[in-house]
Amino acid sequence: MIAKKTGVVGILVLLLVSVIGVSVGITSGGTFEQELVANELMGDVIEIYTWEDLHNMRYNLAGDYVLMNDLGPEDAGYDDYASDQADSGAGWLPVGTGPWTEPENHFTGTFDGQNHTITGLYIDRPSTNHIGLFGCVGKGGEVRNVGLVDVEVSGDWYVGGLVGSNSGTVENSYATGNVSGDHKVGGLVGWNWGGLSGEQFLQH
C-alpha cells in the first residue's frame, strides 16, 4: 500500500479518442535491445505486446511504438515490472527521466496506444521526481490513444498517472486511480509545458 502524502488526487480523466492505425512488424532474431536499434535505423514502428516490451522502451527513447493489446495484472511480466513486488517494492520504473537539463534522458519518440488499456500500474517512489508511466516526455515526444486503469502512483515533484512532466504532446488518453505527490501533481499529467488535447474531467 502506498503511503498517503499531500496532494493526493483521485482521478477519472477522460479525453476524446481517435483511432490511428499502424501496422508494421518487429524484426526477428537478436535481443530486444538490438531489434530496437535496428527498427530505429530502418524507421520502423516497434510493436508492444508484453510488459517486458513496454519496459524495454527505455532502451530507445526516440523510438516509435504501438501498443498491440491491453496489458494488466494477469499478463506475464506484470509482477516483474509493474506490480508492488517489482523493483523491491518501488514498482514501475518510469520511461524517460528528468531533470529538464538532461534532454537526452527524456522520451522523445512516439507511443500510440491504439485505444488499448494498461491496468494496475503501481509506482511507489515518494522521493523521486518525474513519475508516471512516462517520467518525462521531451520536446517532439508524443503519447496518444491510451487508457490507464486503476493506477496507484506516488512520487515527489512532477507526478502523473500517464506522464510526470510533459514538454511534448499528450492526446486522446485517460487515467483512473490514485496519484499522490508533494508538488506539481496531476491525474493524467503532473506538469505540462507542451500540448494536451481533448476534454478533461477530474473526479476527486
Q: What features would you highlight for this structure?
A:
204 residues, mainly beta, nine-stranded mixed β-sheet, three-stranded parallel β-sheet, 10% helix
Describe this structure in words.
With 204 residues, the chain is mainly beta. It has one domain (9-197). It is built from 3 helices and 14 strands. Strands 1, 2, 3, 4, 5, 7, 10, 11 and 14 form a 9-stranded mixed sheet that branches. Strands 6-9-13 form a 3-stranded parallel sheet, with no helix packed on it. The chain has a two-stranded parallel ribbon with strand order 8-12. Helix 3 (78-81) links the parallel strand 3 (64-67) and strand 4. It starts with 8 loop residues before the first strand and ends in a 7-residue tail after the last strand. Mean pLDDT is 83; it is low at 1-30 and 199-204.
